[in-house]
Amino acid sequence: MIRRFAHPRALHAPAMIALGLLVIVAVELRAAGHAKLVSEAILGVLLVTVISRRPAAWISVLIVLVPLQFVIFGLLYRLHVPTAALRAGGALKDAIVAGVVVAAMRESRSHRRKPDRLDVFAFAFLLIATIYLLVPIGFISQGLSNRSLAWRFDCEPVIALIACRRLDLGDRGRRLVERSLLVTAAIVIGFGLLEFINKDEFYRVIVHVFYVRVYAAAVLHSFNLLIVDQNTVAGTTVVRVGSVLFSPLSLAFWILLPSYVALRRAADRVRDPLVLIVAIGGPVTLVLTQTRSAIAAGIIGALFMLGRSGGPARARRRLAFGLLASTLLLVPVAAATTLSVRVDNGFSASDVSTQGHIDRTTQAWHILLDHPFGLGLGTNPEVLGSGHTNFVSEDFYLQVGNETGLFAMLAYTGALGLLALALWRRARDGTPEASGPFAAGIALMLIGLVLHSLQVPAVALTFFAIAGLGLAAPGPQTRTDALDEADASVDAPAGPVVHR
Predict the structure, then answer these.
(1) For the chain, which end, N or C, has fewer CB atoms within 10 Å of the first or last residue's CB respectively?
(2) pLDDT-derived band of residue 330, with 50, 70 and 90 as boundaries?
(3) Residue 433's closest CA among 458, 462, 466?
(4) Nearest to residue 188, comparing CAs of 29, 337, 68?
């Protein structure tokens, strides 16, 4: 089907009209002296077209690029890649999402799939957010650049979810994406362990080998990138591991998904060293971040995997033994950190961090009641930064409401609930690709009650893309039928048998 669409004679009338309009706009812009803009637009369209032909490969690139962007681009900067090229490379994630959308549109046209309730809630959120993008609605008016950045952070993951759940990548494509996620997780885990064991060596590698700080300043104009998160807890200097995401919170949120995927594969007796590395190293890295809410939610997500969503009974028993062994392993790891001190302080209202969570959540409720249509697109921590705590809620769902209003919050929350339900049904029916995203979704949604887990771009984009592919993966019965059909086609005679 893809090849048939790729043939020039298969172009539909809307595509020809769109191409004609693009040519007209390009001619007008060139006449007005915007030659550079025209060239970038044409290159963008060509790149999106190329990506749409190979969605599995490019989704794998996206999975690798999202958490490793600073390391990859910093190394390229050291190798004297032009600054303009690196700055344009920052838009590669947007191009990949656009290409996946084009590929999903082709799949939808061929299968004539109708939108379901999850699509309706997701589209409702996208519609409201797009209105806030085009019109400066809200108590605090943000500029168009800030609104555009916030729209990308908030909407691109949802768009990736809608598109990926309509893609049939085949077994080979799904294995490629999963492999990319596990390889990336192993790299992130390796850097995290280095940071915990020797923070000075980690700093040297990041700054002097990968040129991350120089890249951030020269290309991104970011001069306050925190490489090592180091503070004092109960009079003791503590390093909370952030690895190449340079944030213990972001790392704690991100590592949940590959850890659950690896645990599910290990329960299926997948004898792959990479699976074991992530299955063991992921929980260890999570503990080293010392993020209390993520660790607690991670335990709850693992317990959900012990139910029917964890696969067959034998796989669940193996998973239970694996989790027990992991618990025994994590006890000395936790003892080597100040996690116990942070947990004890978490139950005390006098703890500065705990009191901050309570105060900002209470403030978010008041903001939502006073401004039910929101403060405006862009009034979120990823856009405003940590210095604008007056408008930053610790509750992710309230943050969506504070930014784009009550109706957007209800639409987003409804979409998340329907996504969790759909993943649970697929995992319960024996689809292994849905088990990991289901457990990670439960954990991230629980964390969202106290932290902005799904507002971190690297976390949201990775989770929604993998979750969408988990929904698109065929169930065990479909795979069995496909194998039976393949065997029948092999066993069938090539032509009529002639007896002489």
Answers:
(1) C
(2) low
(3) 466
(4) 68
The Cα–Cα gap between 448 and 465 comes to 18
* Encoded amino acid at 201, one letter: E
CA atoms within 13 A on the CB side of 303: 7
Say which residue the tokens 């139910």 belong to: 307
244's CB contacts (< 8 A; 6+ apart) are 67, 68, 70, 71, 187, 188, 191, 206
CB 469 within 8 A of CB 177: yes
DSSP character at residue 128 = H
Q: Determine the Cα–Cα distance for residues 124 and 160; give it in Å rounded to an integer.
A: 15
Coil, helix or strand at residue 233: strand
Interaxial angle between packed helices 432-447 and 248-267, expressed in degrees from 0 to 180 and rounded to the nearest 10? 150
Given a cut of 90, is residue 187 above it in pLDDT? Answer: yes
Token readout for 44 is 């963008």
> Which structure tokens are listed for 320?
């239970």
Residue given tokens 């790891």 in the structure block = 333
Phi-psi region of 290 (alpha: psi -120 to 50; beta: other; left: phi over 0): left
- Contact between 341 and 332 under an 8 Å Cβ cutoff? The reply is no
Range from 91-100, 179-188, 396-405, 472-481 that averages highest in pLDDT? 179-188
Partners of residue 237 on adjacent β-strands: 232
Contact criterion met (CB below 8 Å) for 57 and 175: no
For residue 314, the number of C-alpha atoms closer than 13 Å in the C-beta half-sphere is 2
Kind and range of the H or E run holding 230: strand 229-233
pTM across the whole model: 0.82
Quick check: 110 pLDDT over 80?
no
